[in-house]
Write a structure and sequence with these properties.
Layout (H helix, E strand, L loop, with lengths): L1 H10 L6 E12 L2 E10 L5 E10 L3 E3 L4 E2 L3 E3 L6 H4 L2 E6 L6 H16 L13 H7 L2 E7 H13 L4 E5 L9 E5 L2 E5 L1 E6 L2
Antiparallel strand pairs: 1-2, 1-5, 2-3, 3-12, 4-11, 6-10, 7-8, 7-9, 10-11
Helix pairs in contact: 3-5
Length: 195
């Protein structure tokens, strides 16, 4: 479990200027990643410890090969909304008064709720401007929290809208491992100290 790594780090007397760096990321199978992780002191090349992280049943990831200061595992996080919660569809049935203002409002609201973890536009139907000009259609599909924010933005612009549940409550039990700007969404994380 990843808890072994976190526990070891808590119990190891390391100085404040310790950083992590991913030195290798290998896709072992379609749904398994293996990372090599070094622990180093800032401004030094000597490696204090090296760990192998195995991530099983991987659904999504973004890896940056840079130094970072923290490793955190979460059962609940914005990144997990799309995997552990049901999707909802947002339909609209009137033309907005000001399409550009509406898209700006949707952008601001999206950034506020997702903290930039989910890219703006990733939940929208294609060609949003054109679709809004048509006056009806499926605008977006995604987690309830985000769809509710989009719905409120539509209604504030005088657009008629409705939300429909797309499916059942998901019980995927995904977790997210945050390595500052990098992340891995998977069901299981294992850590093994190499040196």
């Amino acid at each position: 479990m990843i808890n072994e790594l976190l526990k070891t780090l808590d119990e190891t007397p390391l100085e404040d200027d310790v950083f992590f760096r991913i030195t290798e990321c290998v896709k072992r199978t379609d749904d398994e990643l293996e990372l090599s992780l070094d622990i180093v002191y800032q401004y030094q090349t000597d490696v204090i410890q090296t760990w192998k992280l195995t991530c099983k049943d991987v659904h999504d990831h973004k890896i940056s090969f840079c130094y970072f200061e923290s490793i955190e595992e979460y059962d609940e996080h914005i990144l997990l909304w799309r995997y552990n919660q049901p999707d909802f569809e947002l339909y609209f049935s009137s033309i907005p008064n000001d399409i550009e203002a509406l898209i700006g409002k949707l952008y601001r609201e999206h950034i506020d709720i997702t903290k930039q973890w989910i890219p703006f536009g990733s939940l929208f139907n294609e060609k949003v401007n054109w679709l809004l000009e048509q006056g009806n259609g499926l605008l977006a599909t995604g987690p309830e929290q985000i769809i509710n924010v989009y719905n409120r933005a539509l209604q504030e612009q005088g657009v008629r809208s409705s939300i429909i549940a797309k499916g059942q409550q998901q019980t995927n039990n995904y977790k997210v491992l945050l390595l500052e700007d990098s992340f891995i969404i998977a069901k299981e994380f294992e850590a093994q100290m190499i040196k």
